[in-house]
Each structure stands twice: as C-alpha cells, then as structure tokens.
Specification:
Elements lengths: L2 H10 L12 H21 L11 H10 L9
Length: 75
C-alpha cells in the first residue's frame, strides 16, 4: 500500500472496509472517496503510476464523476 493510502487509514485508526461487519455505504463511502481521490492524485502526478489498492485510471475517473454530487464525500 502506498504511503499516502496508509496515512489516510492510519489517521482514522482502522481499515473500515474490513472486519466483522458487512458492507455499509454510510460507514464506507467517505473512505472510498478518500481512496479514489488519492488514486487520482497519484495518476495525475505520474503517468506510469500503479498501485494495488487503486483501480485503473479510467475507473477512478468514472467513479469520481459519478460520485461527485457530495454523496459519500468526506465531511
């Protein structure tokens, strides 16, 4: 995991997408938005960038476009 992605989750004190509970959009959407924004920054800074937690560049772009209405955005 890249240093930036690790810092996002360490700042929150946990990895909220895993654990005993099932997926809950209310709990996870802000983390997903942070992840995709971090991936977008990585792709913008380096054309050849790759990272295991980041989807392909086109998926990141589409997801951010579809989720830019404020829903799921970090508070």
């Amino acid at each position: 995991m890249s240093k930036n992605l690790t810092a996002v989750f360490q700042a929150e004190g946990s990895f909220p997408l895993s654990g005993e509970n099932t997926y809950s959009p209310k709990k996870c959407d802000s983390y997903m938005h942070k992840l995709y924004e971090c991936c977008q920054q990585m792709y913008a800074s380096n054309e050849a960038a790759e990272s295991t937690p980041c989807p392909m560049r086109s998926i990141v772009k589409r997801w951010l476009e579809e989720n830019s209405s404020g829903k799921g955005r970090p508070q």
